Amino acid sequence: MASPPLLLLLLLFLFPSSTVAQKRNTNITLGASLTAHHADSFWSSESGHFAFGFRQSGGGDYLLAIWFNKIVEKTVVWSANRNKLVPRGSTLVLTTRNQLVLNAPGGKLVWATSFAATNQSVSYAALLDTGNFILAAADSEILWQSFDYPTDTILPSQILNLGKNLVAPYTQTNYSNGRFQLAMQSDGNLVLYTTNFPVDSISQSYWATNTVNFGFQLVFNLSGSIYLIAENKTIVATLTSNNPPTQNFYQRAVLEHDGVFRQYVYPKMGTSNSSWREAWSQVSRSIPLNICTRISNGMGSGVCGFNSYCQLGDDQRPFCTCPPGYTVFDPNDVTKSCKPTFVSQRCDASSSPETENFEFFSLENADWPQADYGYFQPVDEDWCRNECLNDCFCAVAIFGDGECWKKKFPLSFGRMDADVNRRALIKIRKDNSTLPFPNLDEKGRNKTKIIIGSVVLGSSLFLNIIFFLLTLFIGYRFSIRKPKVVQVDPLMLDVNLRAFSYEELDKATGGFREQLGSGAFATVYKGTLDSVKDNNLVAVKKLDNVVREGGEQEFKAEVSAIARTNHKNLVRLLGFCNQGEHRMLVYEFMENGSLADFLFRPSKPTWHQRTQLVLGIARGLSYLHEECNTQIIHCDIKPQNILLDDSFDARIADFGLAKLLRKDQTRTMTAIRGTKGYVAPEWFRSLPITVKVDVYSFGTLLLEMICCRKNFEQETEHEDEMILSDWAYDCMKARKLEMLIRNDEEARSDMKKVEKLVKIAIWCIQEEPSLRPSMKKVVQMLEGAVEVSAPPDPSSFISSIS
């Protein structure tokens, strides 16, 4: 643990005494003030690297803060009033009474500096080029400094002394105190805690340096290293080291809203495209490495809210997800728990336990470690399911290695991770199951009759006359304002859908204001319909008013086909409008957008998420091809047409290009449809089109999901990687599949599954349609029921007959 001989000299050089201010900085004189207004009002450090003043929040109020001022992001590193923002017109004044004072309009005190009694008085203030704001005496002795009162961030040259702590913000944009603390304890231990939110008292520790009786200060030096030193200045624990020099990079270390302590760097000579990136470290990239599994007990809900679970993305950042059958309590704050979208199982001794109305959804590698109230072993999974099903208090059963745990509401500390070797069995109400109304006993019915009769008989003649006249008036007004009757297309009389008028959908979408997307035939808008159960958000697909070739056929095909489908991996059609020139379709709203947005964003979905999505898409296509009364060829399978519901499950959307087949048909001829890159070769050869065109598109999509990249990318490390399907086959043939996932550690640890999925994808993109498997067989291969043999070169069959 001893430091090198020169360490003391180095520390003294890097950390000059904090009792002397650097006079070269621009001083702020007594009486100087700032006022919160529309533009940022601030004082700058001498170099201009930092600013101190008012920053306007998204809600319009102001935060008194210090921020990096020469970068686009204007990142806040300290704030005075994080828990109580002030309105426009608030003032900050350096008073002659030795204080920096923040007042709201009208003079109400919001915040002020304070320091121990001294013979010295404040002579001036200054924002140093280190990001430290100071109040200094005439001899430059520092009487107060922001470095002594950190919020969530420490900067190079800053020290966290005994008894000091960092408090995480509530969210990335809400700077108020959050749910985590990093404490430099008086016993010398540096500890990360959850808090008893909304109060700031600490709850449960989830990481520590274990330096009790050794630790003295947490130091962030000018070389970019962060370490814990003893009172004799020797290093007792290193958090990060060997980072880029502070001469060329801005640096900060922050306890973020997700409870992880991270260090960031930003190039001082950066461009407008520069951004903060995590600093490289010999010890760790973040503390702790996996926040989801680290926090597992104590009070509260864990990293995510109650009834939610946490998992790490490819960027190793946690994100919260509601399990199937649940939705977020507050869409603007995913940490505020999830709520069931169904009526819970009845616990009524006089009635049946409704076991026939509930089913289970399995989540692999998932668990809620708390909320146990029943434990059994050794048992099998079926026994565990039945035990939970027959217990009205049981919300979830956890099964693994012959052990079964019953969980009750609220579920807490949820996580999904490869190291969690358990399966969560989520009990949800079946879609077609409703909670019956309780039966009134005879006494209750008689009582109701008596009440109704009393009201009727007790009404005065005058009130009855008034009621009669009022009814006539309302009827008359209704008759003269009666809306146009929506004429239902005769072809759709057998479709169990709601027929909407144009006026209803115009109102629901606010005049078709918020566009979700557009295609060749239509534009999709976000809308709200009170008549829709549960979530009243809908997606309204508006076909072009001018009838184009195929437009009418597309509309009729979608309505007649989708209305008859019923599968959890398909988007549900709720209604339609076929009024005059207006033709629209009303779908359930998918709040998590498309697979394209999820797959190709910088923060990619995990390997586990991708494999589950692949299986869901395959099951949906298999249903369309083989289980519908009218066989459906989608004809345009691509990431943009796969939507994600509130549980991030895949839902196939957009049947606008579907070609319908009767049960006695096996193929059809039609014009080229689909999207470049996903179109099967037979489209270009004037060959009959079968369901195998969807299999081809699925194979391309599968490769994209394996590699988290698009099928064609012009800017690649090597020229032979531009076309993903060709490159994937070459990698498989050369036994170098790890090249496809070289930046995905989770997938690299599961190479057996990677190989299986690549083989399935190559089988699907065979240029000869007869060589492609059916989607039913694809599902069986994905589930492990059918072995996957080595596929041939996708173009070998065509080449052999050319």
From TrEMBL:
ATP binds at residue 542. Gene3D superfamilies: Bulb-type lectin domain, Phosphorylase Kinase, domain 1, Transferase(Phosphotransferase) domain 1. Keywords: ATP-binding, Disulfide bond, EGF-like domain, Glycoprotein, Kinase, Lectin, Membrane, Nucleotide-binding, Receptor, Serine/threonine-protein kinase, Signal, Transferase, Transmembrane, Transmembrane helix. Its EC number is 2.7.11.1. The chain crosses the membrane at residues 450-474. It is found in: Membrane. This is Receptor-like serine/threonine-protein kinase. The lineage of its organism: Eukaryota, Viridiplantae, Streptophyta, Embryophyta, Tracheophyta.
